[in-house]
Amino acid sequence: MTYTANYAAVRTRYVDDTVATASPAKLLTMLYDRLLLDLQRAENEQRAADRAAAGVHLTHAQDIVSELAATLDVSAWDGAQQLLSIYTFLLTELVAANVSGDADRTASCRALVEPLADAWHQAAAQLGATLEPARPASSAAFSGAGAGSFGELGVG
Hints:
Blueprint: H1 3-21, H2 24-47, H3 51-71, H4 80-100, H5 103-127, H6 140-143
């Protein structure tokens, strides 16, 4: 096994273990953090006129938003339906940003996600020690698309 292959295997194992042992709140904030990273990378690639590289990040961002939408329990709290509407809007905008190669559109998506990420980080910090670790889940959402349970935060 080459160094690169060994590094990739170790990194994959680390991500898998991190996801499998993270609390629901931590999983949610990890998804938002990765979403923001994907959007920043996509915007940078679009500005550098590398649509193929940007497309990889935008597609991954779409996978994350799709996962967030799919796991959102709209009956868990009053704002959940509005959050689902934001996710739906984001998906539409991410597809359009990818098709058009529009870095400004991608930046607008990031600007919409940033306050949501901050709010979920604050909520997770308040819930922190009160949540049980999540059941083992796929780490695919962090490398592609996947599933998880976010229970106490109204998703899952």
